[in-house]
């Protein structure tokens, strides 16, 4: 798919998803692309990842599973593009509706906003209940400031891999590009961790996810810095300094970029040591502000996020106009 087709598709998908999200009734009826991909990954995990195999064989099995996943995602998405093109000249609408399911602007905002509401209405217990829906760490280990930081960190990281990254690959490769990215990212979230079962089997998914998220994480940081420049309550200079100083200190090669930008923009400290299950994970601090984040800081982060989304729409619009003019 050429840029003159993929960039208008991206813009339309961003606008549709922001307006209607993914309807709950549709999810109840047919599920979601992520649930379909997840079901396939789970099946491949059960079939190919056997404890009796050597470490090297399990790593190779993970590579095979990833290739099968990507092959099926590519075939399905190319078939859907061909089917939608039968509706020319109105093919953009069904394609954009399909592509919008790969983005999460609306749902991310709603989930993070619920944490601020939970803290405001239910105190620590309400905040812990809400934040447990969006983070993997043990909510019982978090105080109110920890709940607020976790929500802001999740907003920052998921803005990158739930919105900017699929948007980047949609803009570059159309629906197949977005579908391939979503398959990789879902595989990483399911099997790309360092548990005994998935250390070898999920190695390929984790490494490929790091690679495909690299451009988007940097772009996300720039969007947040630019958004901070348009927000009187944010500090664009602080965001820039935090990214330059702290992004590389994060244990993830990509998550540090948006988290450092958000931390610097809001005058906070994010990341740092965290507890997942019973395991304490040591990590570098992003930003040099206060660690005592509040529900008000979550709302400030959401305001910055909205501006950054608008800037992303602007980039898609400018790119669409330029591609169509060529």
TrEMBL record:
<keyword id="KW-1133">Transmembrane helix</keyword>
<feature type="transmembrane region" description="Helical">
    <location>
        <begin position="28"/>
        <end position="48"/>
    </location>
</feature>
<protein>
    <recommendedName>
        <fullName>Cobalamin biosynthesis protein CobD</fullName>
    </recommendedName>
</protein>
<feature type="transmembrane region" description="Helical">
    <location>
        <begin position="308"/>
        <end position="325"/>
    </location>
</feature>
<dbReference type="InterPro" id="IPR004485">
    <property type="entry name" value="Cobalamin_biosynth_CobD/CbiB"/>
</dbReference>
<keyword id="KW-1003">Cell membrane</keyword>
<keyword id="KW-0169">Cobalamin biosynthesis</keyword>
<keyword id="KW-0812">Transmembrane</keyword>
<feature type="transmembrane region" description="Helical">
    <location>
        <begin position="60"/>
        <end position="80"/>
    </location>
</feature>
<comment type="function">
    <text>Converts cobyric acid to cobinamide by the addition of aminopropanol on the F carboxylic group.</text>
</comment>
<keyword id="KW-0472">Membrane</keyword>
<comment type="similarity">
    <text>Belongs to the CobD/CbiB family.</text>
</comment>
<dbReference type="Pfam" id="PF03186">
    <property type="entry name" value="CobD_Cbib"/>
</dbReference>
<comment type="pathway">
    <text>Cofactor biosynthesis; adenosylcobalamin biosynthesis.</text>
</comment>
